[in-house]
Amino acid sequence: MTPRIYIPGDSGALALGAEKVAKAIANELAERGIEAKIVRNGSRGAYFLEPMVEVATANGRVAYGPVKPSDVKSLFDSGFLKGGHHKRWLGAPDKIPFLAKQTRLTFARCGINDPLSLDAYKSLGGLKGLQNAVAMAPADIVKQVTESGLRGRGGAGFPTGIKWKTVLDTTSERKYIVCNADEGDSATFADRMIMEGDPFVLIEGMAIAGIATGATKGFVYIRSEYPHAVAVMNKAVEIARKAGVLGVNVLGSPNAFDMEIRVGAGAYVCGEETSLLNSLEGKRGVVRAKPPLPAIQGLFGKPTVINNVISLASVPVIMDKGAAFYKDFGMGRSRGTIPIQIAGNVKQGGLFETAFGLTLGEIVDEIGGGTSTGRPVKAVQVGGPLGAYFPRALFDTPFDYEEFAKRDGLIGHAGITVFDDTADMLKQARFAMEFCAIESCGKCTPCRIGSTRGVETIDRLAAGIEPEKNLALVTDLCNTMKFGSLCALGGFTPYPVMSSITHFPEDFKPAPARVAAE
Ligand SMILES: Cc1cc2nc3c(=O)[nH]c(=O)nc-3n(C[C@H](O)[C@H](O)[C@H](O)COP(=O)(O)O)c2cc1C
Ligand code: SF4
Hints:
Glutaredoxin; five-stranded mixed β-sheet; binds flavin mononucleotide; binds iron/sulfur cluster; Nuo51_FMN-bd; NADH-quinone oxidoreductase subunit NuoF; metal-binding
């Protein structure tokens, strides 16, 4: 049997040197006259082990990582094509603790095979959900998705089934499915990983959404910073079309559904759904007032489902294994699994899919292994740049939409950024206001003007000018932004600011006292 070597082509792995490793392995094979097949898979998401190279042996896959080009000769000398021992040896990939502890439903196939092999996708259960869907009435598909408890993974946590029902119930000669792949939140990469590592699951999810709501056309809006994801998705759509997964007769059924990939132009606010729709229509990315809801008047004024990549990519497993199976995972009103993306100053960064309910402490200390600097964790920002900073005192908070809201936080797109005790939370609060000022679409005053005034006021605090007065001013400003902004960019910027002030008051002391304390 020709040996098979798996080297990730995922952009996270490429950033860590996977291309150089692939070249070194190809050269070594040629030099030694060994015939082997190199498969470029996606990433399994254990980024602290990337580039993670795997070989298929008679006893299953064996992983090595993180592999450097300088390791390649010794890997061959150690007989790695047969799973031989080496300092980079990790054993069977699914036994690596970071991967073994996960519950992979949405990411079940991600990183295992060539992402563009439809046969490999099918061999691991792909297309079963769509096959079930084409045999069902649209209302029954919507019912399954509603009963699964799936909520939007883009940030707001809105029930996916209810959104779909609104589109299904709205009569129109044309409807659309729009996939939000703008993924602008700091520390998030789940959308990118699925698009690069298992693109057919997103295509399958979008086709199911189309059949469920009566939409025949879909668009994936991908951020311009994701050229690899754009390339993989474009190829995957072409393959799916040729194979009859997309087209006028989806899987041979009377249902039509096709889709296109569109590239964004680098604005955070274009991740906000109405701004995204404007951008997709070729207009400036400015937020639209709601109502009308996009579900009733969305893209080109037509009823539109707009969902995050992970929301859509979670639908195939629901339609394959049933709503009850999916709903069985999780806690409270947070059902199913969530791909938590662990980043920042952390030892074991990567994607960890698990049922809702793990505590923040378990995620940071046990899964993430604490900080990469080895210093104590000071704060963790959960939910991207608009998420709150949690101190260690709140590490018992379970990963659950309502539990985070109770503590003035949010899960968002489930990205977490870890900071050690050298972080200055006043600087982080300033950064939040500055980020809002830079990214504001400018439509409403609390966000457009408030964020700039926020930066100035925090600067005065840092300089020790009238600290009590300026602290009260920032708090007042945050209240105005929270309750007076049109969208969550202005409305949620107060979360990182106020959580910094509330949980780390020592960082907001007047400048001389801050210097003395250091
Ligand atoms: C400023 C801002 C940026 C956003 N960025 C994203 C994004 O990058 N990706 C995303 O899926 N949702 C983003 N959202 C949320 C979307 O507006 C919307 O809620 C989401 O696409 C709905 O899909 P879901 O129900 O599947 O989560 C953003 C919201 C705001 C206010
Ligand atoms: S809150 Fe900011 S980004 Fe949102 S509509 Fe207002 S100005 Fe635009």
